[in-house]
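Sorry, I am new here, but would you mind making up a protein's amino acid sequence and the tokens describing how it folds?
***
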Amino acid sequence: ALRQPSVDGLNIAEWYGGFKGAYDGRQQRQSIEALRRIGDPAVKWLLERAVVGPRRSRLATVYDAVIRRLPRGLRSLRLRDPEGSDFGRALEALRAMRPSGALVADHISPWLSASDPEVRRRAINALGCAGEPVNPVLRLLQTLLASKDRVTAYDALLAAQWIGLPAASLSENVSAFLND
């Protein structure tokens, strides 16, 4: 495994764990500041976490296979999956960091054409975490807002609002979306 960059003796995963498990705003702010100091590697790591999730461990893969073999009524007894539960928390951390729009657009672009529709949706949502300069992200959102797929257009609209685009600049797209 590659060694992650660190700040104050903690690596990206450890600072993210501190953000995720924080019960007070001070600890969250401290984690976000450390992730900002780590820079681009932290942003890329969080984007991957927000879009495709953490890499599945061998144990989790075996566990899933065992659960699938259980009778349907017993499958509901499945334990909560701690590895797959933090897409939203990674997105929260990214929104707090407000990484460069150019970095976000560059790293997210390949996932926008993924075969898995859930990965595509999370990639579109992750566009909403972009900070200045936002132009590269706006170009992607413009294309997505014009999509014939209503789910894609809706997700792009939400991402645009997260960036903070004024409603007036989105009104044409909203009208087109509602009139379809």
About this structure: The first helix runs from residue 12 to 20. The chain has eleven helices and two strands. The chain has a mean pLDDT of 82. The radius of gyration is 18 Å.
